[in-house]
Design a protein that fits this description.
five-stranded mixed sheet; about 40% helix
Length: about 475
């Protein structure tokens, strides 16, 4: 048995590695289509098909139905008009109570006419900003033309307001658009696997089964983006081989957020390669890691890894602390963050709340008896006591509630000790915030300072901070 030890942000992180070497549509209710059927009527929808659950739910909700011959035709193509009806009805964008108007686009240029059955749905989509004039001009939207995967990515980005400024590692190996990368970032559409890696293949027409799945995912994402993304990331790891650093980081954060006793995954990365990625994920996103170490089991030459997590207390207690921390962040944020303020002001509000409501766990720090909870956001929110990793984790959770991207940075502080602070990216520039060092020690009630707030890299270095800027890059917060 090999034992590896790491000290991160003042916290001893133990990793036990066991190497076992030897044996070790959807017909979208268009004119002429039959009324909704039970799934038993769909002779071509099998219970073991990947799209079975999505089609089941959408049929039950009466968003889709089948054809008179008892088929669903999951591999058939879906037209632009059919998809627009499906998504506007399923997401409540189209309301039958509203007065129908002609779409504010060139209907004839889009291959339609004033009597086309889909006009009312297209009109609703235009009003919602899902369809724009440029879609007609470039030929993306044509009423009765099969819809492409590339165009659907654009529709989803507009509908959910997703950012297309994707810098944190591309998901696809092919020439995928920024829209495809944006929907993949949220694990709504992940593309195909090939010998070259993942490929989006935006030029392909989307099938009826794919359209049903995409719309159900969009519905779930709108209800709770964070929960949807966590579940989708874990499901992706259950069904596919993780081949990119980005996928691994996403998975390690998502699975740790659930505080399981163990988990399993398959990756093209070797143990040593993904181990380094795991360590990086923990440093960047400490808010999701309640475990104190892990044991990994795998067979030499195989790429399936079984991981048993270790906790300072019980699994249930770790899960409770994670839930409490996230609940606190969600409930606190609306009361302290002015949604009309600019990013810098929001960051100041978060910075001030943490400092005014938490004190540094100095006594335990001096005695070398820092409890696990002081390294977590739970320590900040529930106990009012933490060390640097806890400050940084709480700051990140509140930033997430404010829609601000931030990650933690691990390095050494001006006093030469291991330390953790935050990085943000605003207006094309990277800034650093250290709420721990802005909190007076010993604690002074009602007092805060801004000596370590919104500093550039040169300013941080001038104050004595040191970190690996090739590892903790701005790509993670752009």
């Amino acid at each position: 048995m090999v034992k590896n030890r790491r000290r991160i942000g003042g916290f001893l992180f133990r990793i036990f590695v066991l190497l076992i070497i030897s044996a070790m549509m959807i017909s979208v209710l268009t004119p002429g289509v039959c009324a909704a059927r039970g799934l038993d009527a769909f002779s071509d929808v099998k219970s073991d098909a990947w799209y079975y659950q999505d089609i089941t739910e959408m049929t039950a909700l009466k968003f889709i139905n089948g054809y008179p011959d008892g088929t669903f035709r999951p591999n058939g193509r879906m037209t632009c008009a059919e998809f627009i009806k499906l998504i506007t009805v399923a997401l409540g964008i189209y309301s039958p109570d509203e007065e129908s108007t002609l779409p504010p686009i060139d209907i004839n240029e889009a291959g339609g006419n004033e009597k086309h059955w889909a006009n009312k749905y297209v009109s609703a989509a235009c009003d919602a900003g899902i369809i724009v004039d440029a879609d007609v001009w470039d030929g993306s939207f044509v009423y009765d033309k099969p819809i492409t995967r590339g165009y659907i990515a654009k529709i989803i980005v507009r509908l959910l307001g997703l950012s297309t400024d994707i810098q944190n590692g591309r998901m696809f190996a092919d020439d995928a658009s920024v829209y495809a990368e944006a929907v993949a970032e949220e694990y709504i559409v992940l593309g195909y696997t090939s010998e070259y890696g993942r490929e989006y293949r935006g030029y392909l027409f989307m099938t009826r089964a794919e359209a049903a799945a995409v719309v159900m995912r969009v519905r779930a994402y709108r209800e709770n983006p964070k929960e949807y993304r966590t579940k989708a990331i874990i499901k992706n790891a259950e069904n596919t081989t993780l081949t990119t650093k980005k996928e691994l980081i996403d998975f390690f954060c998502a699975v740790n957020r659930k505080c399981p006793a163990s988990f399993k995954f398959t990756s093209s990365f070797s143990y040593r390669e993904w181990h380094d990625v795991y360590m990086l994920a923990q440093q960047l996103y400490p808010e999701y890691f309640m475990s104190t170490g892990f044991t990994c089991y795998y067979k030499d030459g195989y790429n399936v890894f079984s991981v048993e997590l270790e906790y300072s207390s019980s699994v249930s207690d770790a899960a409770r602390m994670m839930t409490v921390a996230e609940t606190y962040a969600a409930s606190i944020a609306p009361g302290i963050i002015d949604e009309n303020a600019d990013f810098v002001e929001k960051l100041r509000q978060i910075h001030d709340y943490i400092i005014l409501n938490c004190k540094y766990d100095y006594e335990n720090y001096k005695n070398g008896t820092i409890p696990r909870k002081s390294y977590t956001a739970y320590g900040v929110f529930a106990e009012g006591t933490a060390v640097c990793q806890g400050y940084s984790a709480a700051f990140s959770l509140l930033c997430a509630e404010a829609g601000i991207k931030t990650v933690s940075v691990v390095g050494t502080s001006p006093n030469g000790e291991n330390h953790c602070w935050n990085m943000v990216y605003i207006g094309g520039k990277t800034y650093y915030i250290d709420p721990t060092f802005d909190d007076p020690v010993p604690d002074v009630e009602g007092s805060t300072k801004y000596e370590y707030f919104m500093l550039g890299a040169e300013e941080m270095r001038a104050k004595g901070y040191s970190w690996d800027e090739n590892v903790f890059t701005a790509d993670y917060v752009k």
